[in-house]
Amino acid sequence: SLSTLVLQGDAALVSILGFAVCLAPPADVFLYRKHVLGLQGFQQPIISIAGTVGWFLCTVIYRKQISAERRATDTLRLCLKLWPVPLVAKILILRPPEMLVLPAALLENAANEFGKALTFLPVTVLQQLHAPAGCEGSAFTLMQAGGTLGMVVGRNLEWQLLHWCGVDMQLGADGFTNFSVLLV
């Protein structure tokens, strides 16, 4: 039952971990791409597709390379060590040459989604290992709810950080002068 699942320590802890993983502000650069890099509306969905490719690529690499023949704890440890690598792509988007704006944006979004998957996939494995027998579906739902709540709180935290760093989207490109502070 759901009450057993919530009260059972390991599955609840993994759900809290899912919340914490998704709590990190995503540093979404959609408006930066629009106002500063000058990308058009029709280009944004293409960039979104690159993000989906990044997530899918991570799931394949995770299954075939990262988690292959490793214990779940070792896999989680490796993922946490690799997690900062996609953040390098955020730096690439700060001032790309004009002819590389779209490729830089594609790479940044693919790397961003790759990084999200890199942190969330080990949490799903931990939940599989710690869910009580017969409650696996409920345990996954609880973990997913924790992740969704973490993403909502993280998004709101991101908006507060934007304001705190002096980013004002109402000013267009001029309002993003301090955006690099938020990314770094």
Number of strands: 0
**Number of helices in the DSSP assignment:** 9
The arrangement of helices and strands along the chain is HHHHHHHHH
Beta-strand residue percentage? under 5%
Average pLDDT over all residues: 83
* N- to C-terminal distance: 44 Å
> Considering DSSP H and I runs of 4 or more, what fraction of the residues is helical?
over 70%
Rg value: 18 Å
Secondary structure category? mainly alpha
Low-confidence stretches: none
Largest sheet: none
Give the overall form.
globular
Task: Please characterize this protein's 3D structure.
By secondary structure, the protein is an all-alpha fold. It contains nine helices and no strands. Helix 2 (9-23) packs antiparallel against helix 7 (101-130). The mean pLDDT is 83.
Based on the model shown, name its key terms.
mainly alpha, 184 residues, 9 helices
Summarize the structure.
The protein is mainly alpha-helical and 184 residues long. 71% of the residues lie in helices and 0% in strands.
Secondary structure layout:
Elements: H1 2-7, H2 9-23, H3 30-35, H4 44-66, H5 72-82, H6 88-92, H7 101-130, H8 136-164, H9 179-183
Helix pairs in contact: 2-7, 2-8, 4-7, 5-7, 7-8
